[in-house]
Amino acid sequence: MTAIESPCILVCSIDMKTGYCFGCGRTRDEISAWLKMTVEERRAVMGELPARLETVERRPRRETRRTRMARERSELS
User: Fold this and answer.
1) Which of 8, 9, 37, 71 could form a disulfide with 41 if both were Cys (CB 3.0 to 4.6 A apart)?
2) Would you list the domain boundaries of the chain?
C-alpha cells in the first residue's frame, strides 16, 4: 500500500473568514475529496497552500502569561 502525501498537521479547524483550515490551508471540500484526488491534483492544491496560510488570521486561543506580562509592561510605560 502506498502512502498518500498530505499537508495535514492535525490542527483541524476552519477559519470562517477565509474558509481555509488553520493547520493545512485546505478547504472543507478539498479535505473531504483528498483521497479521491489524483497525485497531480493534490500537488496542485499543495502548491497553493503557503499563500493561503498567509491569509488565515492566527490568534492565540487565550492570553499566555508571557503575552499578559508584555501587555502589562507596555500599559505602565
Assistant:
1) 37
2) 28-76
